Predict the structure.
Amino acid sequence: MPTFLDGFERAAFVDGWSGVDAATPDTLPLLGSPAELPDEIVVSTGFNGLGMVNSPVAAAVVRAAVTGEDAPFPVEPFAVDRFPDGSTEFELRGTFEMEGAGR
């Protein structure tokens, strides 16, 4: 970095933050109940850094799952068990590099 930013060698780390984030191979979240678990278990994760932004929509899906109502939109693209091999090995892509956003 010093090559590109004059004075960078004098920079000091003064503050930081980190958090746990969940990602999926296709960058779509996981919403719903896993088939192998009781229906009372509802999953809402894997928002690739956009969980706060998408939480109102996810909450509507979770509410529908808990109350037995229909979800407000088709949730098949977000099925919890859509990755049958369960592999955690995949190339992590940035949130804004998503292909097929808005499916």
In short: The first strand starts at residue 30 and ends at 32. Residues 51-67 form the longest helix (17 residues).
